[in-house]
Amino acid sequence: MLIFEQSKPGRKATAQAPLNRADVSAIPEQFRRKQSAALPEVSEMQAVRHYTRLSRKNFSIDTQFYPLGSCTMKYNPRACNSLASLPGLVSRHPQAPASHSQGFMACLFELQEMLREVTGMKAVSLSPAAGAQGEFAGVAMIRAYHDARGDTARCEILAPDAAHGTNPATAVMCGYKVREIPTGPDGDVDLEALKAVVGPQTAGIMLTNPSTLGVFDRKIEAIAKTVHEAGGLLYYDGANLNAILGKVRPGTMGFDVIHMNLHKTFSTPHGGGGPGAGPVGVSERLIPYLPVPMVAKDGDEYQWITENERPESIGRLTAFAGNAGVLLRAYIYARMLGREGMPRVAEYSTLNANYMLKQLQSVGFQAAYPQRRATHEFIITLKKQAKELGVNTMDFAKRLLDYGFHAPTTYFPLLVPECLLIEPTETEDKATLDDFIDAMRSILEEATVDPELVKGAPYTLPVKRLDDVKAARELDLAWMPVVE
Amino acid sequence: MPFIPHTEDEVQEMLAAIGAASIDELFDEIPDSLKLSQLDAIPTALSEMEITHLMAKRAQQDGEPTCFIGAGAYDHHIPAAVWQLTTRGEFYTAYTPYQAEASQGTLQLLYEFQSMMVALTGMDVSNASLYDGASALAEAVLMSVRANRKSKSKRVLMPRTVHPAYRRVVRNIVKNQQIELVELPFDPQTGVTDPACLAQYAGEDFAALVIPQPNFFGVMEDVDALTDWAHENGTLAIGVVNPIALALLKPPGLWGEAGADICCGEGQPLGAPLASGGPYFGFLCCKQAQVRQMPGRIIGRTLDLDGKVGYTLTLQAREQHIRRSKATSNICTNQGLMVTAATIHMALLGTEGLERAAAASYQNTQKLVDALTAVPGVEVLFDQPAFHERVLRLPAPAKGVLRSLAAHNVLGGFDLSGDYPELGDAILVCATEKRTDEEIETYAQKLERVIQLQGGVTCGLVPKE
């Protein structure tokens, strides 16, 4: 039942609003609304009960194993939330002067410095609001760099066919054409194909390493050399930074610009779809173009760096300082990990992934790249099951829900047929991984004996499979009051 | 090890299953030349207790000054239940609802959110959020250029009464697509975009006209005339609105003869704390005709195999994970948790509650203006109908006055001299329903003192003790 359907006109059982209704008759009629907005009118308890009940219809990290590949669904420490919500921090107005912001700015400055160190970049700006905005900032900086040199013929961004959809979408937002680079049979970028297409039109390449195929591109140094020699720059999509945190730095690999997804690697909450935070780091030559604001330290005092101090900056991408509260949570997490905890993130997420891959293979599943090490995630392909049993990846995913596991990422990357991209993260214990492997083995048995059972899943959730075609054809995007 | 549950025995069992001698061996595909040895510049780990001490100190350091700044972020009361519910693990630690059957909580909530925004704005549809108000306006501008089939120009009219940071963000985001933003001046007497100044552009090709309501100065624009002008010129009307103000003001869907085509804005006043500027969320609503040009997630109501009602992500063919380089935007992760808070906030306040919060903010700003303009030399600029912000001109340098007030723990307003030097020593002040009469009185007293000390008024007033 919708909250609107519990509404009764005239109910005012709320203590949350001002006690009295102030007079607004001085606002001229022409500006005022004639009819009140039809928001629900419910009591506090009704609202609390309604949203508590709704919350229970969700799978979440706190309630389920959530091995959604490329999303790094690791445990979100509670201290990060409670400390970022201290009154002095949540009540700070974004336009408060630096004199009343030194505590907050100290956190941002130290986070900039830690991210700089762990990525091997020369400078970091925290301001982009999410990964895709970080990508935008990165490609906009590449553009600003070429433009400033008068090198305006570079009209193309390269991206592997395995790239996240945000990569090509971002390149287009920055006014570039996109050219796809094929992947070789071993999962690495096809270097010869890359060499064939780089040239004076190449502005840069967007790479994720480890790639979305769950393998580390072993030829990264050759790729960097090839692109750099053609005058292009290298962009690192930090979606998979968890796999190499504290082990390898994008700066060492030769990247000129990177974004990080703090809601992935630095464990800030995914929130049902955000907020994220997408800080960017750059090599020396891109420093002037970093997005603002940033924080500088002068003696003991922290200062804002804005458009005024950085006239060549690509500017600001949100009205204030990006998702500041997310940055604080990431800062707290990073301090709790410390220098010794960061490499452990990569180590144990990689251990978990390789263990799962091995065990899933041993119960009859096919790895997409069996000759390769898994990184923090890996792909299995259900091509065989789809062909022989008529049970496809989506069926497996839906059946997993009945077993109490969130499904891995399905049908991505697009170049591996019938794939599941599985990312366990470092915060899961062996018993949980074993339970998941058992569930997969069991579903494989079901698929062999009774494929219809799997194809009809899920059975135990608030709804069965939903009619997506109807949703898109007969659009119903908002509740409308019934006219009586 | 913080957050890592493995025992040494388990590690050994797992390595044995993999057939590796050590965890290090799992990284053997990475060239040795790339491997990192140390992270010297990162401090060693802190326990929860230690980080608690540190953060408590940092939070305390910033004090909790009384805030009379608005300028895009507003200090409204947030019901206690909002964040208690929002931080339930089932909301807080879920992700984008790709598996609809396992995400009905988030999906239904987002459908309710879309419905509430439709009710507030009078538009046909809403998306499920963008990053913030400024980036939402950038997306609205990009959307208008795609959606306006009559226009070939990629030119958009942008009044100077739109928040200066929003104008910068829009420029930064759209400039690489050769979209030209044409600035519209405001009337120096009234502080609004004068519909008459549009006459010079009649017959020219523009994709859209941006219309802020209330505008950055808090003043009401003649939205009906502006919307009608846009439509008469084959231009789309994009409203930029404050969702709390909408409880009282005419919804964009009803502006002029035909209503705005797109509206967007900052969702922060609906349940998000000030929190240094984020996370907030941007909202974007439009007419049905433009829904396929919308950026961001959209949730639809549908049926399951048994004919039971359920909710799912829909129109995904607009989005980057399907359409890649032809997507309507690159946005992926949005501001889901903030929308969760906003939905619960609106449900708790309801129609009447939101109207009362808006009316009280309006009234408090009036009280603030009355109290401050009683200080000699302080005057209201743009004496026009306004919502909960006002421009005041000070008889002393604005920067210095604001700095002195801050030293007395009052954030006195937003200094306009940087963005609008022509206004002189002008500040933008705001008092939401949270500011008390006593706080307003204290501000007025301190302002009087500070102005006297800065020598702003030279008529021989004796400083009060």
Automatic annotation (TrEMBL), chain A:
What quaternary arrangement does the UniProt entry report? Answer: The glycine cleavage system is composed of four proteins: P, T, L and H. In this organism, the P 'protein' is a heterodimer of two subunits.
Q: Which family does it belong to?
A: Belongs to the GcvP family. C-terminal subunit subfamily.
NCBIfam families reported in the protein's UniProt record: PRK04366.1
The name on file for this protein is: Probable glycine dehydrogenase (decarboxylating) subunit 2
- Cellular component per GO? cytosol; glycine cleavage complex
InterPro entries, A to Z: Aminotrans_V_dom, GcvPB, GDC-P_C, GDC_P, PyrdxlP-dep_Trfase, PyrdxlP-dep_Trfase_major, PyrdxlP-dep_Trfase_small
> Coiled-coil segments, which residues?
none
Pfam families linked to this entry = Aminotran_5, GcvP2_C
Q: Aminotransferase class V domain location, by residue?
A: 168-271
Q: What GO molecular function annotations does the UniProt record carry, in alphabetical order?
A: glycine binding; glycine dehydrogenase (decarboxylating) activity; pyridoxal phosphate binding
Please list the cofactors this protein needs: pyridoxal 5'-phosphate
Q: Which superkingdom heads the taxonomic lineage of this protein's source?
A: Bacteria
The species this protein belongs to is Sedimenticola thiotaurini
Keywords of the record: Oxidoreductase, Pyridoxal phosphate
From TrEMBL, chain B:
The alphabetized list of GO BP terms reads:
glycine decarboxylation via glycine cleavage system; nucleoside metabolic process
Q: Name one GO molecular function term.
A: glycine dehydrogenase (decarboxylating) activity
Q: Which intervals hold domain Glycine cleavage system P-protein N-terminal?
A: 3-443
Q: What is its EC number?
A: 1.4.4.2
Q: Report any Pfam family annotated for this entry.
A: GDC-P
Q: What class of enzyme is it?
A: oxidoreductase
Q: Which UniProt keywords apply?
A: Oxidoreductase
| Catalytic activity entry | N(6)-[(R)-lipoyl]-L-lysyl-[glycine-cleavage complex H protein] + glycine + H(+) = N(6)-[(R)-S(8)-aminomethyldihydrolipoyl]-L-lysyl-[glycine-cleavage complex H protein] + CO2
Keyword Oxidoreductase in the entry? The reply is yes
Query: Mind telling me which SUPFAM superfamilies this protein's record contains?
Result: PLP-dependent transferases
- NCBIfam families xrefs: PRK00451.1
Q: Note the subunit structure.
A: The glycine cleavage system is composed of four proteins: P, T, L and H. In this organism, the P 'protein' is a heterodimer of two subunits.
Any idea what job this protein has? Answer: The glycine cleavage system catalyzes the degradation of glycine. The P protein binds the alpha-amino group of glycine through its pyridoxal phosphate cofactor; CO(2) is released and the remaining methylamine moiety is then transferred to the lipoamide cofactor of the H protein.
Q: Which named protein is this?
A: Probable glycine dehydrogenase (decarboxylating) subunit 1
